[in-house]
Every structure is written in C-alpha cells, then in structure tokens.
Amino acid sequence: NHEYYHGNVEEWFTFLRGCNIKVLHNENFRLTTGKGESVCMAGIDDLITLKLHMHGHQMNPRKALAGCQKSDLVVLLAHQPNAARYVLSDPATNGNVDVVLSGHTHNGQFIFFVPFVHLANAWTHGLYWNVPTNTHILVSAGVDFFGPPVRTSGYCEVVRLTIAGKS
C-alpha cells in the first residue's frame, strides 16, 4: 500500500517492471504446474484505493479474477487481509478463490498495537480457513516493518508455501 503514499504509483509500477517483477494491477496470469494443473494468480490494487479515488487505481477483484477458470487453483494476492474479507463477501467473487495471500499487519509489530491490530483486521497472522467460501487465507508478518525499525511483538518471516493442487 505504500506505493500509493510515497511518490507516483505509476513510477513504482515502472520501477518494479524494470526489476522483472510482474505487477498484478487488478489482473491475473495463468500458469501450469509440472503435473499439468492450472493455477490462476490474481492480484488486486490495495484496499486503500477504494478511499483514495486515484484515476485508474481502485481495487477491483471482479476484474482481477476475470479469466480464472473453475478448474484452476485460484490464488489471490491482496496486501491487506481486510481486502480478503471484501472479496469473500462479494457474491460475484466468493467461492471463486482458493487461497488469499496477505500481509500488512506485521503481526502487530509493537506489543501495544496488538489489540488494535486484532480489532481492525479480519485476520491478523497465520493460516485461516473461511468455511463459507472454502478459502484459505494466509497472512504473513513479512520481513519489514512500519515506522521505526523495531519489533516488540511477533517476528519477521519468509513463508514457504507449497500448493499440492486443487482438491
């Protein structure tokens, strides 16, 4: 979400593409595993874009998921876990996402933030299962921090995710 606060978001996208990073700006791409299974990787603009009203930038999960097939394993990249709540509550998109990957919460980062993080977010850290939509939500603490380079709660992490296929 910081690309919307620091500098020009289009310049950030250009920079990331120049680093050979695929930017998923309300879009997806499909890939095939070694076993021939299809995976649809979709990414949405940050949740904050619903309030910022920036031309050409507004979280649009319907657009991001367009083209994903029912037979695909659908993985949605959504920076804020509350974006997952938004996507999973929309009748047009719920039930169409198998896994949501999020971060944003930094697992509280400072001990005095932890209660507020839990109050403000649908999911805060770890792996969750949303029964009504049959969706896994994984929220990572990440490797960075917000504000001062200090953590008094939680930890930094790099998550290794192995997807065995759609069941």
UniProtKB/TrEMBL annotation:
Query: What GO MF annotations does this protein's record show?
Result: hydrolase activity
The cross-references to InterPro entries, in alphabetical order and at most eight, read: Calcineurin-like_PHP, Metallo-depent_PP-like, Metallophosphoesterase_sf
Q: Where is the Calcineurin-like phosphoesterase domain?
A: 1-107
Q: What is this protein called?
A: Calcineurin-like phosphoesterase domain-containing protein
Q: Which organism is it from?
A: Mesorhabditis spiculigera
